[in-house]
Amino acid sequence: MSAADLAAVIVSIAAVVAVVVLMFAVSALVSTMRALRESIEALRVDAVPAMAELRRAATHANEGLERVDELLDRAESISTTVDSASRLTYLAVSNPLIKVVAVAAGAGRAMRRLRRGR
Fold first, then answer.
1. Exposure pattern of 29-67 as b/e (b: 16+ CB <10 Å)?
2. CA-closest candidate to residue 79, choices 68, 87, 69
3. What is the rounded distance in angstroms from the CA atom of residue 68 to the CA atom of residue 112?
4. How far apart are CA 94 and CA 23, in angstroms?
5. What is the mean pLDDT of residues 64-87?
6. What digits encode the pLDDT tens for the residues 4-61?
7. What are the two backbone dihedrals, phi and then psi, of residue 2, each rounded to the nearest 5 degrees?
8. For all residues of the chain together, what is the average pLDDT?
């Protein structure tokens, strides 16, 4: 066997070893890809219903917020109406009430003077 024959045998053995190593690497890669596909499918099966539930919860929360906003608007309207009514009541009642108190005070003084004068 010459040196060229020996080199050809060594290169052939190295090539066979490289092919075997590459086959194991490809096999491991295929196995990893299968596991990745299964994980993605499991994630999709779990995530899609969770996202749908999250959407429903967000919609429900938005409806609740709209109701609260309407209630706050009504409460503000009622508060404004009550404030206006109390202001009008004060203006309508205060002046005559002051006059009645003044008349009563004057009548009381007059009654005291009349009693003293007798």
1. eeeeeeeeeeeeeeeeeeeeeeeeeeeeeeeeeeeeeee
2. 87
3. 62
4. 102
5. 92
6. 889 999 999 999 999 999 999 999 999 999 999 999 999 999 898 999 999 999 999 9
7. -90, 175
8. 90
Residue corresponding to tokens 């086959």: 23
Query: What tokens appear for 82 in the block?
Result: 């009550």
What's the confidence (pLDDT) of residue 114? 83
Least confident of 3-12, 43-52, 75-84, 98-107: 98-107
Alpha helices in the chain (DSSP H): 3-117
Report d(CA 57, CA 14) in Å as an integer. Answer: 63
